[in-house]
Protein 1
Amino acid sequence: MNTKEKLIQKLQDKTAKIGILGMGYVGMPLAVVFAEKGFNVLGIDPDARKVETFNKGISYIQDVPTETVARLQKAGKLNMTADFADLAEMDAVSICVPTPLRQTGDPDMSFILSATEQLAKYVHKGMVVVLESTTYPGTTRELLAPMLTEKSGLIVGEDLFICFSPERVDPGREDWTTYNTPKVMGGMTGACAEVATIWYSGAIETVVPVSSPEAAEMAKLLENTFRMINIGMVNELALMCERLGVDVWEVIDAAATKPFGFMKFTPGPGLGGHCIPIDPLYLSWKMKEMNYSAKFIELASEINTNMPRYVVTRLLDALNDRSKTLKGNKVLVLGVAYKPDIDDVRESPALDVIALMKKKGALVEYHDPHIPHIHHEHEGWKMSSIANADLMDKVKAADAVIIITNHTYYDYQAILAAAQFIFDSRNALGKAGKESPKVVRL
Ligand code: SAJ
């Protein structure tokens, strides 16, 4: 049997050793899915605290129950280490490291680079490597493969098998999981795709091979650019409807009655999260490198980035109509997570809205049942959520309540009754909000 056949054999009889490089909200669920299906899995992560917590049998990832970690550890199927040298023993490695943006707005490739540098020390004949981190088209072929082959002399498609397979993890979601969400797989060669498809098919319900890593890299970017642009479009619709004196929420609900050819998006105070505001900028950056301007992405990014300022301007106007100012008045922000019912505040527009209101002299407090503390890194201030027990008193006392994230935790009827004035940026109050003289909606 040749190298490929021997590796396929190990993957099929699950004697292959699996390494998951980067045990975050993508890597940990992936490690669990492979371990649940009988693979021997080793999570590798440089964060010693993560490793320590994990090795106590405790999960630090919201979507992975602690009992799952403890059970798989006890079964000897899932372990974790901070020692990259263990990569030398691996037959198959998935790289699941962050791909954020730098302050400049350019891609921050440092995590992929450092992970690949480590892997390059231990890569060997008969290994398959799958990059899962969202990145610009060309990363796998132009950056990862050369780093893994230049020194080792391994031949891609014969000794070493390299693919790109975009992660599609939506933290907190229970209907679509790592196991049942179809997984696109783009191989550097046919043999690479064959090996990785056999590997992933041993644990994931549907694997969808495509012709190249670029096709897989671009498919992921299409998925999230699609959302970012449509959210930008519906945010601009809100600006237009306000000028026209038309209720944007009614317009969207009416359009959404179309049973085909339409997908509902709703306006809001901006674009948060670790995917949607970021992934499309990896594509526009790459296109800029190729002297092409990705116009839709740049326009949508401009509109979405401006939404916090638009919300504060609308709030100022609404208070002015009530002979009130922001300056010196108490504003209570409800919800700072980047989307409802999660505990993630990354890129949340709430922080920009709060920063703008602070600058205007407002006395701002916030409540979020999922986010006890926030920290505006750029401006340096920190805040803590008011206690749940104080919520209604604070609603009553506020000159303005502004709903930024419409958590299901809130009793919106009670809030509407108790508040003096509400700016509702999410239409959380619905029809009652539309009809109330003390509510202004985005
Ligand atoms: N948002 C709007 N209006 C909308 C939808 C979203 O303003 O109509 C805002 C949200 O409030 C949030 C941001 O956009 O601040 C992103 O929201 P999202 O619903 O796209 O949630 P994410 O960032 O968690 O996106 C993830 C993505 N999953 C992956 O990348 C694997 C995305 O592809 C999923 O479609 C999305 O979850 C989902 O559907 O929940």
Note: Residues 127 and 160 are 5 Å apart (CA to CA).
Protein 2
Amino acid sequence: MLNGKRILLIIGGGIAAYKSLELIRLIRKAGGALTPVLTRAATEFVTPLSASALAGDKVYTDLFDLTDEAEMGHIELSRSADLVVVAPATADLMAKMAGGQADDLASTLLMATDTPVLIAPAMNVRMWEHPATKRNLALLEGDGIGRVGPDEGDMACGEFGPGRLAEPQAIFDAIMARLGDGPLSGKHIVVTSGPTHEPIDPVRYIANRSSGAQGTALAAALVRLGADVTFVTGPADVAPPQGVRVVAVETADQMLAAVQGALPADAAVFAAAVADWKVLGASGSKIKKDGSGAPPALALGENPDILANVSQMETGRPALVVGFAAETDDVIAHATAKRARKGCDWIVANDVSPETGIMGGDENAVTVIDAQGAETWPRASKVDVARRLAGKIAEALA
Ligand code: CTP
């Protein structure tokens, strides 16, 4: 439940604006309070009256409405909320946010707020894929702004692809994850996931077969329990879950920097399959065959151990640090030694021998090892393993 938490809902002008009315209904049903703000363009798609009737509150549209300024100034309006949600976030609104423009009420509120902001982008697929939108999105994510969607599918303009507003239920889930009363609400958890790519030259790299499935399922399960999750992911096959703050990286060095940048956190879970080695002196241009028939020699250097680095921090170490261990033999003995060597609190060990079908499969069988000993869980789907592990993390942080 949202128990009176207040959401400032900025409705941008796009064909998907009508879906924001359903979002208002879901928020109200969960006991949330709402103040809708419509951009001028949004009023072409939904009427202030319908937004106001569903929200049960006044709707704001114009920066220079002096009556409103007397009732509640725009600074106050932007800060009295627990969360600012922008749905739909049009390409234009995202550009204004990224550029720090404040030329109407919506953009002024977004500049003035000190409250967390969640955007639900919606636009034509070409606009979503335009380099300008990509640049703006990167800036917004760098500023710590959360995002849900967009979805992929048929669009009102007749094209197909990513750009559709996330379903109201998905936006609502992302709001609940931030404001709901889950056992992990108010807790910040960093999760690493996926493989890393270590460049050889601009077109080639060393990688591994991690799909990112277990890390993604875990981040989603933590969000469902109310955690604020920073999801640091290498180039994974699986898309990041909704409702997390995504930091996309390629190399182990970048992953370490991203994790350090995301701290402090209450817990950190390292599900990434980080490459142990990087190519020293990776070539800045494509390595060519030199005609001699001799292959180029690659000098490898060790990557930083991100899990060990964070586990052994002298100040600011997360209260709970969890590592994974993929082993093929003597699973418990190797994983127990790994826990001690790296200094983490728990190691989630799994047997990735080919006959288990776990690597790249949908199921996992894990043993959770802590200072007290080992606890083996029955084989289950990666989603169920994630759910159980998230529950155990919630108990440990309670
Ligand atoms: N890990 C990490 N940084 C690295 C290597 C591993 O953070 N450079 C983390 C992984 O995310 C995982 C744990 O350490 O949580 C164990 O990873 P694993 O590959 O099983 O262990 P290694 O340290 O690589 O040991 P080994 O290859 O010798 O089994």
Note: DSSP finds 14 helices and 21 strands in the chain.
